[in-house]
Specification:
Blueprint: H1 13-36, H2 39-56, H3 66-82, H4 95-98, E1 105-107, H5 117-135, H6 139-151, H7 155-162, H8 166-185, E2 190-192, H9 200-216, H10 229-248, H11 255-268
Helix pairs in contact: 1-2, 1-3, 1-6, 1-11, 2-3, 3-7, 5-8, 5-10, 6-8, 6-10, 7-8, 8-10, 9-10
């Protein structure tokens, strides 16, 4: 995700920050909705982020990616807000608890190309299930997942924003994806599948390859039919969760909030 680092960003804040608002306002509002849980708190968060960006613009060196700089401010704002919030889940299930391979019945993902009222209703329910599952994630998993799969940063960019190692980002995002997959599966039809065609180790290696492909935004081809029915079912539900997450990042910031921020910038200038 690139906002255009380089000489073009050697701008006065009166030009740069409104430009960042237009480029990233919608994504920041999406982040706020998933982190805060309500439109009102999301608006407060976005307002805090741009107030900080306005005040600290001179600290930006103009050579790095302004999107990473802006979302680092967002991460700190989220952390300040989080300290005032209660009710965070105590834990995320262990990796073994999140694995579906031992179950006899697995979800059947509907045809994504279908276009009828029933399918539209199912898609709304899927969106709601994923949104609720994101809200129920512990904070460190939720923020990593939102930055990666909803906002659209790379693993390296998420690591820079959060100030952690790339391996830690992957661990958090991969476990969070498995939790979202579980949440989606609860609302999908299920069918009994034959036992796994491979050992547990091979299944785990294939799952890791699938997660790595999702990290890179590429498909994982089923070369020569190497995937068994169980892997195909699990990977289809991971793809569905990924698609729903990407859709949660679409959309614009409310015009009322955008106008308010622009007025505040003009008044401060």
């Amino acid at each position: 995700m690139d906002a255009g680092p380089g000489p073009d960003w050697n701008l006065p804040r009166e030009e740069a920050v409104p430009r960042l608002l237009d480029l990233h306002g919608g994504r920041l509002y999406a982040l706020g909705r998933r982190i805060c849980g309500s439109p009102e708190e999301a608006q407060d968060l976005v307002q805090d982020i741009f107030v900080q960006a306005w005040r600290k613009w001179e600290q930006f060196d103009g050579r790095s990616d302004p999107a990473v700089w802006l979302f680092t401010i967002a991460r700190r704002a989220c952390q300040r807000m989080h300290r005032r919030r209660a009710g965070e889940p105590a834990r995320l299930e262990s990796f073994d608890e999140l694995l579906p391979f031992e179950r006899r019945r697995l979800a059947v993902v509907p045809d994504p190309g279908a276009d009828d009222p029933l399918t539209a209703q199912v898609r709304r329910e899927q969106r709601e299930a994923v949104g609720a599952a994101i809200t129920a994630l512990p904070d460190e998993f939720r923020l990593a997942l939102v930055l990666k799969d909803i906002v659209g940063f790379s693993v390296a960019e998420v690591a820079e924003i959060l100030g952690i190692k790339e391996a830690t980002v992957k661990t958090r995002v991969h476990r969070a994806r498995l939790r979202l997959r579980q949440a989606l599966e609860a609302g999908l039809p299920q069918r009994e599948l034959p036992p796994a065609a491979y050992s547990r180790k091979v299944c785990l290696d294939l799952l890791q390859a699938k997660q790595d492909a999702l990290d890179r935004g590429v498909s994982m081809p089923n070369a020569d039919g190497i995937l068994c029915e169980r892997c195909e079912a699990v990977f289809a539900s991971l793809d569905l969760a990924q698609d729903v997450c990407a859709g949660l990042g679409d959309g614009a910031m409310p015009e009322r909030l955008r106008s308010l921020l622009l007025r505040e910038m003009q008044a401060a200038g």
